[in-house]
């Protein structure tokens, strides 16, 4: 599920592209004193992902902006909502806002037979360490992550997206539902690369690294109820890595119900 947070700008300010760490910090402050507080620095997926503050662009006092929070854990989003109602001041670094409204949103990829397109609203982080690099024949420095680039091919991306979603599935999905890596088919049937780019990112206080991220349009046809669960989990948790910093947040941008005209789109990445 999702929480739509409506914001009003409290001052004229430049839009900061390095918002990730500050925005994460504001959300976790909303979880102080709750049962989720101890998970901030845990090794397990928290199941919390978020969009950027949109629309993108220079901010003028009084502007209306929005933020989407996603999680498969209704209680976690409810805890954030309760805190934001009590304390609507919402400062993301030097970008000051006030929360003006909160709305629950329930996105869905559609019933079996539905075709659609999922687009990454924030960049997807796909990285490989020694073992995975060796499996794909990718060069890199031992102990240091190598970020996916188009020259590495499509197969590593497919494996990484399915594998990272499987780890979230293991924590948040019912045990009787097969994992994304336990079914024969891929999560998506079309992969269209929009762009890759490097982004200096603060991952914790005083530590900045340069992430290489990619933006995509993924085509899908919902095969069955299990596949529908997998796709909806991706909407709730994000795709790839660093979801806790907001990377990998995705939206359904096209959807065609069974019996309607088929969607058109690219068959592979560019």
What does this molecule look like?
This protein is of the alpha+beta class and 270 residues long. The protein has helices at 20-29, 74-86, 130-136, 155-172, 225-237, and strands at residues 2-9, 49-50, 64-70, 89-92, 95-105, 115-120, 124-125, 127-128, 146-147, 190-204, 207-221, 250-256. The protein has two domains: 2-105, Alpha-Beta Plaits (2-Layer Sandwich); 115-256, Alpha-Beta Plaits, CATH 3.30.70.1900. The chain is 23% helix and 30% strand. A five-stranded antiparallel β-sheet has the order 2-3-1-5-4. β4 and β5 form a beta hairpin. It is globular. 34% of the residues are buried. The model is unreliable at 264-270 (pLDDT under 50).
Mean pLDDT: 92
Number of strands: 12
The shape, in one word, is globular
CATH topology of the largest domain: Alpha-Beta Plaits
Count of alpha and pi helical runs: 5
Indicate the percent of residues in helices.
10-25%
Q: How can the largest sheet be summarized?
A: 5 strands, antiparallel
- End-to-end gap: 32 Å
| Main CATH class of the largest domain | Alpha Beta
Beta-strand share of residues: 25-35%
Overall number of domains: 2
Radius of gyration over alpha carbons? Answer: 19 Å
The H-and-E topology, N to C, reads as: EHEEHEEEEEHEHEEHE
